[in-house]
Design goal:
Blueprint lengths: L1 H9 L2 H39 L10 H15 L7 H18 L6 H6 L1 H26 L3 H26 L3 H29 L3 H11 L3 H10 L2 H16 L1 H15 L12 H15 L4 H24 L3 H6 L3 H24 L1
């Protein structure tokens, strides 16, 4: 004990005071910035999940409801300044971690189960839709970054793809919100309308499931449309959709390479392989090789949904409706044309392969 006291006495008091002051500063920063913002985001997330119990709102995923709730809160009440740090933390850190956890919803065996033809249809549809949307956006004068977000949301997996793509494209928060809103609108139309078209188009359960999985925007929307047409249809639609989700990784890498090539300052350009994409691929591989208990998977799926919802609630909190209006109707027209293209192109491939 005496030796410990001797050591303590040997430490300069100024150094101890400086360390204590630094510690207090970090705690104050945490309490005054990150925590209030996370609490606000968590409250909006809770509202989004609760709203799904209200009649009519069950059609929408909590992520979409969270964006709307966040926008209403920020534009009506205003976002507190002391909550900005926590909102930014939710928008960036939580979203990236949630995208990594998406890998637990996919295995390579699931991809193989829809066959080489099914994978080919999904891949061709994704690539063609992305190129079509980027090209049309350039022709009609939509901002390049907003165009990339709409292209990713339409061709890959809705809101999740939009927020993942934005980590590379670095678009404005208003652009992200606009893209999510437009993708949600047309994805919902597809979810409600495609099952009604199945008998008119002569699609059996396998063909319809493949079409729904290859063309509808959000995972939840695909599941809703697929199982509405039968169990087999729902299962095939889900696997086809998750195959599209797996293609998020190469798409982000490609966008990263494009961003670096266009940048004048190569050292300042974003890396072509963001860490969360590499982690996503690793998680898919782990999920394919190791049998994870169903209870654990359910918990991970819930945690993933909650974190994605918190991230989108944070985006809604930073969205300015006046800025959304300034974008006009061209981006909405672009999203509509992309919606028509992905539905028609994938249907053509399904018909030809059948």
């Amino acid at each position: 004990m005496s030796s410990l006291i001797h050591i303590a006495n040997g430490i300069p008091k100024g150094l101890i005071s400086a360390d204590l002051a630094q510690g207090r500063k970090r705690l104050d920063s945490l309490g005054n910035g990150i925590i209030p913002g996370i609490v606000l985001v968590a409250m909006i997330t809770a509202v989004a999940f609760s709203a799904r119990n209200v009649s009519g709102f069950a059609l929408f995923s909590p992520m979409i409801l969270a964006v709307v709730a966040g926008m209403v809160y920020s534009n009506v009440l205003g976002t507190p300044v002391h909550a900005k740090a926590g909102i930014a933390f939710s928008q960036k850190r939580l979203l990236r971690f949630a995208i990594v956890l998406l890998g637990f919803q996919l295995t390579l065996g699931q991809v193989v189960s829809i066959g080489a033809g099914g994978v080919g249809i999904v891949a061709l549809t994704l690539g063609a839709t992305f190129v079509f949307t980027i090209t049309l956006g350039r022709l009609i004068g939509v901002d390049a970054k907003l165009t990339q977000l709409i292209a990713a949301g339409t061709s890959i997996c809705g809101a999740s793809a939009i927020v993942a793509t934005n980590i590379v494209t670095d678009a404005r928060d208003e652009d992200v919100t606009y893209a999510v809103a437009s993708i949600t609108l047309f994805g919902t139309i597809a979810m409600l309308g495609f099952p009604l078209l199945a008998p008119l188009l002569g699609l059996d359960q396998h063909a319809f499931g493949l079409w729904a999985g290859a063309s509808i925007h959000e995972v939840a929307q695909v599941i809703g449309a697929g199982f509405q047409n039968g169990t087999q249809s729902g299962e095939i639609a889900t696997v086809a959709k998750l195959t599209r989700v797996a293609m998020l990784a190469p798409m982000i890498i490609a966008l990263g390479l494009m961003a670096r090539r266009k940048s004048d300052d190569q050292s300042a350009a974003r890396p072509p392989m963001p860490w969360f994409v590499a982690a996503f691929v690793a998680v898919v591989a782990l999920n394919s090789l190791v049998r994870i208990p169903a209870e654990v998977k359910q918990a991970v799926v819930l945690a993933t949904t909650i974190m994605l919802t918190m991230g989108l609630a944070a985006m809604g909190l930073q969205a300015d409706i006046s800025q959304l209006r300034s974008r006009g109707l061209r981006p909405l027209a672009l999203a509509f044309c992309a919606f028509l293209f992905i539905g028609g192109f994938s249907l053509m491939l399904v018909k030809v392969s059948g």
